């Protein structure tokens, strides 16, 4: 009887030590609601912290979610923005008669097709808790948008917003991986 009591006590002490040794980034992963300080820190690593904060706070889930949930929020925001930009490019491509601009819009349309695919992939990876996959997909999305920026200067605001929201997803995924 004393032996099993000793084992139970040792197990309890080990469990408590493990909980106390969890880093702040790991505790966020375990369902702890994020605070304003986390949002501010994440957004400070972007080119437009104000837009980042405004975007994340535009979703009511941000106020009550953990970091994993915030990754979902950022992916949804990126999907909306990337899709809206894709639609805009498609409409511009149909309207323009300038052959050079048509070529540029066509290249951007291809890039944004890829960006949408990468945002969708990030969502799939988040569903399976593959934060490395989310990080890779967000990075690839940023590359797709950069390819569009290289093709034309006609979409500066759309590219900026799309890139920033993919970067936020990347930053969150990296924090979930303990890299930030």
Give a structural overview.
It is a single chain. Helix content is 79%, strand content 0%. With 180 residues, it is mainly alpha-helical. The chain has a single domain, classed as Butyryl-CoA Dehydrogenase, subunit A, domain 3. Helix 3 (36-44) crosses helix 4 (49-57), helix 5 runs antiparallel to helix 6 and helix 7 runs antiparallel to helix 8 (156-176). Mean pLDDT is 87; it is low at 5-30.
Helix content: over 70%
The chain-level structural class is mainly alpha
Q: What's the CATH class label? A: Mainly Alpha
Total number of domains: 1
Oligomer: single chain
User: Number of helical segments?
Assistant: 8
Number of strands: 0
What would you report as the Rg, rounded to the nearest angstrom? Answer: 21 Å
Any guess at the CATH architecture? Up-down Bundle
CATH superfamily: Invertase/pectin methylesterase inhibitor family protein
Compact overview of the structure:
The chain has 180 residues and is an all-alpha fold. The protein is built from eight helices and no strands.
Describe the structure using short key phrases.
mainly alpha; 180 residues; elongated; Butyryl-CoA Dehydrogenase, subunit A, domain 3
Secondary structure layout plus pairing:
Layout: H1 2-20, H2 24-29, H3 36-44, H4 49-57, H5 67-95, H6 99-127, H7 131-151, H8 156-176
Helix pairs in contact: 3-4, 5-6, 5-8, 6-7, 7-8
